[in-house]
Structure formats: C-alpha cells, structure tokens
Here is the input.
Amino acid sequence: MKKQTGIRFRIREKLFLYFLAKYENDIGLMIFKEIVEKYGGKIRIGSGSGKGTAVHFVLPV
Here is the structure.
C-alpha cells in the first residue's frame, strides 16, 4: 500500500505557477485553475500528512 504523505503547504502555494511546472499534470492543474476562475469559481488544494491531497473547486450556477 502506498503511503500518502500529502503536499507540504509551501509547495501547494506554488502548484499553479507555470514557471515551476515540471510535469504535464502540473500544467493541466494550472489550466484547470484558469478555467475555473474564468467562470467565477474558486479552487483550493487540501492536503494533510497521512491523508493525501484533494483539489476542491466551486462554480457558480
């Protein structure tokens, strides 16, 4: 079983910055954030040691 360590807070703050993207999924997350914000939504990343990481977003209806 894979140990879920989560993402440290300092790294979570930088996940949406293009110039720090190292992998394709990093760029996908940045594009996703732009789309959510374009439609007036909000996005955040929750993470905790032993709990893994979750991306939460809300879009207005």
Remarks:
- Residues 3 and 50 are 7 Å apart (CA to CA).
- The longest strand covers residues 42-48.
- The mean pLDDT is 74.
